[in-house]
Amino acid sequence: MVDKKTRILCVVGTRPEAIKMAPVILALRNEPWAEVRVLATAQHRHLLDQVLNFFDIKPDIDLDIMRPNQALTTLTARLLLKLDDVLTTEKPDAVLTQGDTTTVMSVAMACFYHGILCGHVEAGLRTWDMQNPFPEEANRVITGRFARWHFAPTKGSRDNLLQEGIPEQDIIVTGNTVIDALLMTAAQDIEIDVNLNPGQRLILVTSHRRENFGEPFRVICQALKSLAEHNPAVQFLYPVHPNPNVKDVAHEMLAECPNIQLCDPLDYAPFIAVMKRAYLIISDSGGVQEEAPALGKPVLVLRDETERPEAVDEGVVKLVGPNYERIVQETQRLLDDDVAYQAMARGISPYGDGHAAKRIVDVLKAHFA
Ligand code: UD1
Ligand code: UDP
After folding, report:
1. Is 211 a catalytic residue?
2. Residue 17 is among the residues annotated as catalytic for this protein
3. Furthest C-alpha separation in the chain
4. pLDDT tens, position by position, 332-360
5. Which of 31, 100, 284, 291 does the annotation list as catalytic?
6. Read out DSSP for 346-368?
7. Alpha-carbon separation of residue 79 from 51, 89, 150, 209, 291 (angstroms)
8. What is the CATH number of the domain that holds 215?
């Protein structure tokens, strides 16, 4: 008689979830005791698909949830209804979910209702402010209430969970799987499919945070415009997030600047190649705050607070808010002052050593195998 394998359902909804879950899916595939199933909620559509293609992961189930500019309440309600059916038919022994999106919160809640064990990858990140980032802080707090295993990337994230009363034995410090994915990818020789001017310094920009929609995002664009005008020999590359609240304003305010190049989101591997080529990065992305220090690239973060304080404490990431003066001053300083630049361009990796997925798999193996 063949022993029944442990059925583990790995869920991905958006681009960063796919990037950070991919190393776990790939590691689980090598485990003879595990049957890995992949559920794409497809909260993102093409952003998700391109990452899954890159890692050669084909979802077993696809909920095709994305709708243009979908409201958060609608998104949550539709996710819960569809997840109900999936958990009923799939009957997984455990579910893994990654990060702090609406997909993640809905998965954790649906697992709770179904009495299914849920592992939270990238657990314990906190700003202690429910409005910043919105709605991610609420998503991860809620997920933390329901999770059976909390895979914390750093000691700081473990301490946050302890502070919330999560039992110590349920928290495992693993490092962040984003570094596993980065190391798998950054070593490859990747073609960059955008026009980069050789000899010019490159500033890479990304921005998509909901709490910056409206006036703060207009301020960010105004600061970029001023910087570009003042530094005509510097090239700005901005792969614009497809959320219409970002895309429409970015094109309206920046399309005419000769040294700002707006483009569609880059595929994951070319994006990493562009990060390697960049002089500095201006971003409000969580993943970019983790990847850039490992590549020795300074990041100016377009937020007033972060749930990723480790790189800020090391002095290689700086918060500049959606604040015109701070964005302009700090960027200009890094362009003009080589000592200040070198202090931020030290290659350090406070978020992981590339072995996070193995540690996660080992915990599941000890429990099930
Ligand atoms: C979502 C997550 C955010 C995460 C980010 C990563 C929530 C509420 N937000 O933000 O935490 O940091 O993803 O990028 O979970 N769209 C497309 N094509 C795509 C993806 C999105 O057109 O492939 C457009 C659609 O109009 C969609 C909109 O962007 O409705 C917003 O997508 P959504 O997932 O709700 O929010 P994001 O801003 O992408
Ligand atoms: N990324 C990408 N293409 C881009 C911009 C970002 O592949 O044009 C990758 C980046 O390397 C990182 C992840 O997407 O791993 C971050 O996703 P995002 O900024 O959308 O979400 P967040 O990390 O803020 O949740």
Report:
1. no
2. no
3. 73
4. 999 999 999 999 999 999 999 999 999 99
5. 100
6. ----TT--S-HHHHHHHHHHHHH
7. 21, 16, 22, 21, 29
8. 3.40.50.2000
Residues 22, 43: contact at Cβ < 8 Å? Answer: no
At position 212, the amino acid (one-letter code) is: N
Beta bridge partners of 288: none
Q: Do residues 106 and 76 touch, judged by C-beta distance below 8 A?
A: yes
Q: Which domain holds residue 15?
A: 6-176+352-368
**DSSP label of 130:** T
Are residues 49 and 160 part of one domain? yes
In this structure, the number of other CB atoms found within 10 A of the CB of residue 146 comes to 17
Which tens digit of pLDDT belongs to each residue from 259-293?
999 999 999 999 999 999 999 999 999 999 999 99
From the alpha carbon of 67, which atom of ligand 1 is closest?
30
- Residue 53 in this model has a pLDDT that exceeds 90: yes
**Closest Cα to residue 363, out of 14, 12, 31, 5?**
31
- Number of domains, the chain: 2
